[in-house]
Amino acid sequence: MAPKMFAGIDVGASATKCMIISEEKEEAGSAVAKTGIDLAGGARKVFEDALSGVDGGGAAVARIVSTGFGRKNVPFADASKTEISCQSMGCYFHFPRAIVIVDIGGQDTKVIRTDADGKLRGFKMNRKCAAGTGTFLEEISHRLDVSLEEMNALAMRSKKDVEIGAFCTVFTGTEILARIREGVSREDLAKGVYKSVVKRAMEMDTLVGDVVLTGGVVAHNRILCDMFSEILGREVLIPPEPQLSGAFGAALYALQEAGQSRLE
Amino acid sequence: MTEIGQRKEIHAAAELKQLLTEYYHELGSAHAEGQKVAWCTSVGPAEVLRSFGFKVYFPENHAAMIGVQRAGEKYIPVANAVGYSPEICSYLTSDIGAYIQHWTPLDKAYGVKSIPKPDVLAYNTNQCRDVKEWFSYYSREFKVPLVGIDSPKYIGEVEDMHVDDVTAQLERLIRQLEGITNRKLDEDQLKGTVGLSLEATNLWKEILETAAHVPSPFTFFDGTIHMAPIVVLRGDRRAVDYYQVLLREMKARIAAGVAAVDGERYRIYWEGMPIWGKLRALSEQFAELRTCVVASTYCNSWIFDDMRESDPVRSMALAYTKLFINRAESAKEQYIAEIAKRFKVDGIIFHDSKTCPHNSNARYGMPSRIRERYGIPSLIINADLNDLRLYSEEQTKTNIEAFVEQMEVA
Predict the structure, then answer these.
(1) Which residues sit opposite A33 in a β-bridge?
(2) Are A27 and A21 contacting, i.e. CB atoms less than 8 angstroms apart?
(3) Is B54 helix (H, G, I), strand (E, B) or coil?
């Protein structure tokens, strides 16, 4: 008989992620795909992709917990939890002590406080505005005429600090055009943009104690980790797969709740 | 038995609808029947106006209805275009915009085609500056007198000097109204009106207090609907009669063990303005989460239990100055903490209403102070009273759900 598995599916604004874990809390499979228009279909697809290497396939999965902004759009999930609770659960597993999690996602940034017992103690989410999120970086990459994937490497080549002052994504775009006209290099501008992402997160809450940095934006833009460490004056903690920490947390919830009745 | 997530209907609501229909039709026909109409701010000197025989209309109630009917986004830009900023009170901008476009939510709600024209406008800035600017617009528009009280603001302890000031302003306002109406104030009439206000306000307080019971028979969302008489019919016998009916129903719910939210697990305090266009959606979300919003500063703002029939003017001055919104941070903090304790709440939701800074209390560190001093967790929601363009539904829903999840693990 195949071992029991537990799945977490994180339907985020930009990407849909799935992680499948064993009863021993070890990863058995995972998958990531761009979130499209069909949230339920996308969730099904990442679930199936994550199952590809799992003994017994879908039949082995005892429970599924969905999370993320599309958590209510996963009809085959047994229960749902907010991404705030799931990030708290997922990050605490890797760093079992009082932590402050900074989750930078496609559409929002969150600061989540988890106590030494792993209990969620409070959280803050950015306002409606997209400044400081993945969407912001995407918009600015167009302005710099560079792909989002290349922007991290571009910023790493910067030699000079440039301050980006605007709060708003659109106004930042305008500010960047003005700086280009002034002759500021793309490399320096790219670095300035990342720095503004860090600043937006740091003004949301006081980041005292152990800071865990996670989320899709962190996974793909490692320069942010260096910047956070530099500004905080200490190393920030990064979970093994930052983009999957929410899905992992959801899978841990599935394991924790196993045995409970299926929620329709 | 209701299903989880369903709002539990209050039987008195039918009577409320009838009462408000009657009230708005009376206003609609006032001029035809030779009566004068005064417009009044929601915590303005309504008792004085009624004592002069005015039919009293409250633009804030009208603006809240614009919000409930989700028409703010249509009319706010109209006011913006004539120079009223999108940053100022969205009651003001939606109401002025609707006026410019000759539209009123009264039509859909009560079959009343237009707002009643004012003969005089009376304000009290105990809420904010915006009400005065709002009324000034209509004073210019209708070419009618504007009278009012410029209240001392941000008060910690209410002292005699504050009450002396407002008493003097009320006396001046009475003299102005005597000039406008060409008649002397009937002091017995004022005493009677203040007496009726006190009676209604005490009943309203008792109704709100029923929510201290576990499980609560009444929610903040019910309160936002059933508060209408204490706003628009303060000093009128019908408000007293209505609240007696509603109080009986709430007491009966307690006696029968009926909860407003089936399976109530958590109790929340709502601080700040309602999000008028999302009352139903929010009340359903809380009901699904088996969480009851049991108390609010907003609904409590119409408790004026300092009014005294024996000393009407000075007691009105005290009651209208002591108002929560008019107070200093320290007084507000104590007030919230006391209610949170008495209503046994598990957490506080602060609505930071973009265009209502005076009734948004999360901007000067209060949530952190309350968490540190009293151990009460809180959540801040960024939204607005009437401008739904400032509201992110998905973010707010996730925030509320996560806040309840936080309580589950606490």
Answers:
(1) A16
(2) yes
(3) coil
Q: In 3D, which of B171, B58, B165 has the Cα closest to residue B122? A: B58
Instruction: Give me the residues paired with residue A80 across strands.
Output: A66
Gap between the Cα atoms of B329 and B199, Å rounded: 29
3-state secondary structure of B242: helix
CB contact under 8 Å between B402 and A69, yes or no, is no
Give the span between the Cα atoms of A138 and A172, in whole angstroms.
12
Chain A residues at the B interface, defined by Cβ less than 8 Å, are 69, 81-85, 108, 119-125, 127-128
Per-residue pLDDT of B133-166, as tens digits, reads 999 999 999 999 999 999 999 999 999 999 999 9
User: Mind telling me how many Å the CA of B204 is from chain A's nearest CA?
Assistant: 34
Inter-chain touch B402–A119, beta carbons under 8 Å = no
Cα–Cα distance, B92 to B98 (Å, whole number): 10
DSSP-based three-state secondary structure for B57: strand
Q: Is it the case that residue B94 has pLDDT exceeding 50?
A: yes
This complex has an ipTM of 0.89
Give the nearest partner residue to A127 out of B382, B394, B401, using CB atoms: B382
| Contacts of range A166-172, beta carbons closer than 8 Å, 24 or more positions apart | A166/A131, A167/A129, A167/A131, A167/A200, A168/A129, A168/A131, A169/A129, A169/A130, A169/A131, A169/A135, A169/A136, A169/A139, A169/A140, A172/A131, A172/A136, A172/A140, A172/A196
Q: What does the DSSP 8-state code read for residue A103?
A: E
Is B355 within 8 Å of B387 (Cβ atoms)? yes
CB contact under 8 A, A85 and B377: no
- The pLDDT tens digits for B230-266 are 999 999 999 999 999 999 999 999 999 999 999 999 9
> What Cα–Cα distance (Å) separates residue B257 from each residue in B244, B253, B254?
20, 6, 5
Q: Provide φ and ψ at B308, rounded to 5°.
A: -135, 130
Interface of B with A (CB under 8 A): 371, 377, 380, 382, 390-392, 394-395, 398-399, 401-402, 405-406, 409-410
pTM of the model: 0.93
Half-sphere exposure (CA, 13 Å, Cβ side) for A168? 3
Question: B331: exposed, middle or buried (C-beta count within 10 Å: 0-12, 13-18, 19+)?
Answer: middle
Query: Which residues of chain A have a CB within 8 Å of the CB of B401?
Result: 82
Q: Would you give the DSSP letter of residue A3?
A: P
Rounded distance between C-alpha atoms, residue B297 and residue B270, angstroms: 7
The token pair that represents B51 in the structure block: 């004592």
Tell me the HSE value of A171 on the side-chain side, using a 13 A CA sphere.
Answer: 10
Contacts of B29 (CB under 8 A, 6+ apart): none
Crossing angle of helices B59-68 and B130-142, in 10° steps, is: 100
Helix/strand/coil for B302: coil
Contact by Cβ (8 Å): B317, B151: no
Alpha helices in B54-159 (DSSP H): 59-68, 72-81, 90-100, 105-110, 130-142
DSSP per-residue string spanning B329-391: HHHHHHHHHHHHHHTT-SEEEEEEETT-GGG--STTSHHHHHHHHH---EEEEEE-SS-GGG-
